[in-house]
Design goal:
Length: about 400
């Protein structure tokens, strides 16, 4: 223990003496009570995570942004120069369990302002996407949570087809947002499909934390804020190609020049999560992971289940196409195969076999008559994993056509 100082010893001796009686001061001379210290302002609470609507969902991708740096195994940086800002990787950081996009007044790549963002390396399609975000304070910035193909080097990649904007908010109006769906031909050329909510007042201060959700399915896209459905776009695969897309979390300067007096500032994202419920296997692209063939198959002129997706055909007896989904969770699913129709060359007696962990059921598919579309193979309970499959076998009396299968959670 430290030694007692002379001052401490003197104080100790003084406290040992008897106290002297002291007359009280007149009331008028009493010191007024000190005012209470002002309470520290509490930070606005983060809106709770909403999660996907309904049951049967399995989370298969996400980032809680809990590390000290961006996980570059998961994310690319936005690096384009667009509108009023250049986007820089060093503007994107992580701290306090969130990802922050610094918005700055600085000269770079011919612009006077810099923003940034991240783009997922994993490309996804149908499912429920959610983030919790807050925009910056001060005009001139456009913050968004959106889905589109690409790696962040440009917002107009040649492969772009579907764009779904979970929210787009211009910071000049921090209570307003909008939701849109665009169909693209690629390289910035717009297709014929656009849906949009239009800009509307949410009644919320979007500079505080709120959750935003996108429920993308074959029947369209639904948009949520804090768990409340705000807009539905009836965007179907017959209208335009439903391709695999990346998740974009971005903020750039656009419109009127930013208010430099409010800079530096930041837009922040607390997390991003993706859940899946239904499973599709195609004959091409990212969803062809479980597709295989035996025998000879060739490209067909017929159109697949989503616009411009290919169909293959096999004419020799015994030519077989197989689709094997990777079910993320056990449960009850209804299986479907996509039927193609060719009135002159379709196989009137193609064999379809559904294999559920060794329990096989078969049926005949007439591809020479009727209408193209999804054909149900029934509803069953399935194990998680890859123990289920659907196969299509040509009978030799026409050409069987291979497109896609899907397993829809029930």
């Amino acid at each position: 223990m430290p030694r007692a100082t002379p001052l401490a010893a003197a104080l100790a001796a003084a406290t040992a003496l008897p106290l002297l009686a002291v007359a009280p001061l007149p009331a008028a001379a009493a010191a007024p009570p000190a005012p209470p210290a002002p309470a520290a302002a509490a930070a606005p609470p983060r809106a709770p995570a909403a999660g996907p609507p309904g049951a049967g969902w399995t989370q298969v991708f996400g980032d809680e942004f809990g590390g000290s740096a961006v996980d570059t195994a998961k994310w690319n940086f936005r690096t384009d120069v667009k509108a009023n800002s250049a986007q820089r990787p060093q503007n994107v950081t992580q701290s306090d369990g969130a990802l922050h996009i610094a918005l700055k007044k600085e000269d770079h790549a011919g612009k006077q302002f810099t923003g940034g963002g991240v783009i997922s390396k994993k490309h996804l399609r149908y499912g429920y996407y959610e983030t919790r975000a807050k925009i910056n304070d001060g005009a001139g910035w456009h913050t968004a949570f959106w889905l589109q193909a690409g790696d962040g080097s440009t917002t107009y990649p040649p492969e772009q087809r579907t764009e779904i904007d979970g929210f787009e908010t211009d910071s000049v109006s921090p209570t307003k947002t909008y939701h849109t769906v665009h169909g693209w031909v690629g390289s910035g050329v717009h297709g014929p499909v656009t849906y949009g909510s239009g800009t509307y007042d949410t009644g919320l201060d979007l500079r505080q934390w709120h959750t935003y959700g996108i429920d993308w399915s074959e029947s369209g896209a639904k948009f949520y804020i804090d768990g409340s459905l705000k807009y539905t776009a009836p965007y179907t695969p017959g209208q335009w190609m439903h391709d695999y897309t990346a998740v974009w979390l971005t903020s750039i300067a656009t419109g009127a020049l930013p208010d430099a007096g409010k800079l530096p500032s930041a837009a922040s994202f607390d997390y991003v999560r993706y859940w899946q419920r239904d499973y599709y296997v195609d004959n091409d692209g990212a969803a062809a992971y479980g597709y295989s063939t035996t025998g000879t198959w060739q490209p067909s002129a017929l159109t697949g289940w989503t616009k411009d997706s290919p169909v293959s055909y096999g004419c020799a007896a015994g030519a077989e196409a197989t689709w094997r989904p990777r079910l993320r969770a056990a449960g009850t699913y209804e299986a479907f195969i996509r039927k193609s129709v060719s009135a002159t060359g379709g196989d009137p007696a193609a064999k379809v076999a559904l294999d559920n962990a060794g329990a096989v059921t078969t049926r005949t598919l007439d591809e020479r008559s009727g209408s193209p579309g999804w054909v149900s193979l029934g509803t069953q309970s399935y194990q998680a994993g890859e123990s289920a499959s659907v196969s299509l076998t040509a009978s030799g009396t026409g050409c069987a056509h291979a497109d896609a299968v899907k397993f829809v959670r029930r």
